[in-house]
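ASSEMBLY PREDICTION REQUEST
Request ID: AP-0331
Submitted by: J.K., bench scientist
Number of chains: two
Total residues: 558
Priority: normal
Notes: Please return the full assembly, not individual chains.
Input sequences:
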Amino acid sequence: MDIFGATTLVRIRHPKRSPFMSLAPSEFRQQVRSGRLSGPTAGYCGDFAQANLAILPRQSADDFLRFCTLNPKACPLLAIGEPGDWRVPALGADLDVRNDVPAFYIYRHGERTEEVRSLNELWRDDLVVFAIGCSFSFEEMLKREGIALRHLEQERNVPMYRTSEANVRAGVFGGHRVVSMRPMKAADAIRAIQITSRFPSVHGAPVHLGDPSLIGIRDLSRPDFGDAVDIHSDELPVFWACGVTPQAAIESARLPFAIAHKPGHMLITDIPNTRLAIL
Amino acid sequence: MDIFGATTLVRIRHPKRSPFMSLAPSEFRQQVRSGRLSGPTAGYCGDFAQANLAILPRQSADDFLRFCTLNPKACPLLAIGEPGDWRVPALGADLDVRNDVPAFYIYRHGERTEEVRSLNELWRDDLVVFAIGCSFSFEEMLKREGIALRHLEQERNVPMYRTSEANVRAGVFGGHRVVSMRPMKAADAIRAIQITSRFPSVHGAPVHLGDPSLIGIRDLSRPDFGDAVDIHSDELPVFWACGVTPQAAIESARLPFAIAHKPGHMLITDIPNTRLAIL
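STATUS: Completed
Returned structure:
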């Protein structure tokens, strides 16, 4: 089993009729903190960046930082906390990472042992928070330009695949790159490359397009994580480095203790997606 | 027959041992003007933009300008001359367009009637010079990043194809978009999209990649202009709008009188390729 439970990702449901739709990120986090909101975060606070989380003991943090730095397409860092600090002011002044995420997964020696809604009882003075950019940000930018995203049209999770492309190893962290796939017409793929190139902190430009076998993917209809989506005959599969990559690296490292968000249940930050554009 | 003679494009030979290799553009133009240089210009003055030329009577110039403006991918304008003026200071202070191009084709009523090395005898007070960006500029930028260009490796002209994509019509000018094709691995194609996006005045980003039949190309091994090139199994064909498009539009318009450069025999300008970057 995938220790990060990505095979059991919840269905994305856009909260079209939710009373929480118009909340600011700090208000949304307050709702989560008080226990009034506990589901997946897709579709909430669409103008603001959501973050993948990896929370590791300091002993592993240096290697993990090096891993992220050496694999920036898959592991673009939005912020790093101070050791022991559950505040990450760069992501939100009032943020309490222990309680502002709808659900966490706890891993011990490479096995997922618990799912919790608060880290109050588990927090340690040696834990370091890593916040990693999420494709929700660039998907917002694609949607604004009218580029259709099949997994959203089909109300599925984006399909993700393990590839044959080895990550650059750093200490115990290695493994292979995971990619997400979005089918597009060629003109949309070209425009999507332009748009996402402006957002390196949320995976940036695609890493591949066209023939999936060239990066070790045998069957697009059988993703390793998420759900398969339809691909039309006039479309190309377009592949982006995926935030599941660091999770797979942590999985293979079999750390004694590690924490991540429950997939789809992200940390909503105060960072406007537009501010992530490098130009 | 194609009135612009693109089917008879000369072979590209890079002038590796030419004594003219290190010339500045103004020196190169002086060599052309004095008759010491008359061949194709590929490979000369590689840091500077070369231009496609269309020289039309004022009566057709307004429509042609509108055509270029409405079809900017295929017809990116580097400069327009004043009616009757053979100087184009925007492209070079000392430039004499009548004599600084190695060879011209003359068209009368849609037929190519002459090839000349000077326009001194043919110049008219109503002629308007249009200088249109050339892919040589973005190819320089691709080469600098180590992206191999198959037609250069194979010492051929780039393959060009008529597509099923109609140009936006302006007066007598219409026709269909012509594209050039360069085969690339996916990662190079993505990088090439990023690089060429910075250079809209020399055709900018590709207009298509992947399945050629989607833009009306039946057989990549049979280009309409230029030469076929090898495509490897791990490569995608990547298609850019091509400077032959305005020539095809002029061809179909059957103007009583028009002038163009002989394909491959370009006007070398004083504009550094790097200055064409929009960012």
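REVIEWER COMMENTS: The interface with chain B takes residues 186-187, 189-190, 193-194, 197, 205-211, 214, 234, 236, 279 of chain A (CB under 8 Å).
SIGN-OFF: pending second reviewer
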